[in-house]
Amino acid sequence: MRRIPAWSACVLLLALACSEPYGARPAASAGTPASASTTPPAGPANETPTAANDAAPDELPIAGRLRYVEVMLGDAKPDDRLPMIIAIHGLGDDPRNFGHLFDTFTEPARLILPQGIDPRDGGGFSWFPLRARDPDVTALAAGIGRAAEEIAASIEVLVASRNTAGKPILTGFSQGGMLTFAVAARHPELLGLALPVSGWLPPPLVPDAAAPKGAPPIVAFHGTEDGAVKYEPAKIGVEALEQHGWNVTLLTYQGVGHVITPEVQRDLFDRIVDGVREAAQSKSQPKSKSLSPKTKDPG
Fold first, then answer.
1. Which of 19, 97, 148, 202 has a CA positioned 20 to 30 A from the CA of residue 125?
2. CA distance 102 to 98
3. 36-280: what fold?
4. How do the domains of the chain map onto residue ranges?
C-alpha cells in the first residue's frame, strides 16, 4: 500500500464557522462547525486552469442538476480513460477549496468536486438544511436522502459522459461524509469504493435489506472528539450496516475532532490510491442504469 507523506507545511484544520468565500478563510472561531478548511501547500497544484474551473459558482458546468469542478490529477489528460474520484465538500465549503485536499495526490485520475445545493450567506454552500446534532433525526435523514439522490443522478451523467475506468470512488467530509454513506447505501451499484470522513448514516437511512451483491466496500474515518458529527452515533451506524452484511470498516482516531489531520489524510489517500489502481485495471466501463433507491425514504 502506497504511503503519502503528511504535508510538512500544511495541516488541514477545521474552520469553525467556515461560511466565508473561497480564498478568504479567516482563523477559526468558536462558532458552528462546518467543513474542513484546506490551505494549498507551496508549489504547483494539480489543477490546470480552464474556463469551466475559473467560472463563477453559478456558471460551473452541470451534471444532472448539480454544478461541479473537474480536475485532472497526476499526469492525466481529459480524454484519457481514467478512474473517477468524487469528493463532496462539507457545510460552508465550496468545491474549489475542498479540492486542495488533493494538491499532493499524484495518481492519474479524474477528480469531480460537486457544488452544494444551497448557497450560504457570506459564501460557501450546504447540502441539506439541518445539522448532524439536530434532534429531528427524521427530517435530517430526509434532507440527506434528497441530496444523495441528486448526487447519484449526477454520478450517472458524469460516468456516462466520460471515458471512465471502473466504478467511481466516492469520498466526502462532514455533510459530504454523510452523503457518502447515503449514496453507498441507496445506490451501491454506482460505486466501487466509499470513503466517508467525519460522516454518519442516521438510522432512517440504514437499509432494511441485506447488502446486495457487489456493494462497495465502505471505509469510514472518524475522530473520537468530533463535536460536530459525534463519534458514537457514527459508530452505531457502521455497526448497523455490518449487521446487514455490508463490508464496512471504521478507522478511529483517538483525540481527533472534526478535522482532517495529516494522519487521516494519509490513511484516506492510501485507500483512494488502492481504489484508483484497482479501477485503472478494470477492463469495463460502468453501465448507466435508471436510479431506484435501495433503502427506505424517510421523506
1. 202
2. 8
3. Rossmann fold (3.40.50)
4. 36-280
In tens, the pLDDT along 118-161 reads 999 888 999 999 888 888 999 999 999 999 999 999 999 999 99
Q: Are 174 and 91 in contact (CB under 8 A)?
A: yes
**Closest residue by Cα to residue 5 from 112, 110, 108, 103:** 103
Three-state secondary-structure class, residue 275: helix
| Torsion angle in degrees (nearest 10) through CA of 64, 124, 59, 167 | -40
Helices and strands in the chain, H and E counts: 5, 12
**What is the model's pLDDT at position 59?**
85
The model's pLDDT over 168-216, given as tens digits with 9 standing for 90+, comes to 999 999 999 999 999 999 999 999 999 999 999 999 999 999 999 999 9
Is 14 within 8 Å of 257 (Cβ atoms)?
Answer: yes
The answer to whether 125 and 42 are in contact (CB under 8 A) is no
96: left (phi over 0), alpha (psi -120 to 50) or beta: alpha
Cα–Cα distance, 230 to 55 (Å, whole number):
36
Distance, in Å, from the CA atom of 112 to the CA atom of 87, rounded to the nearest integer, reads: 6
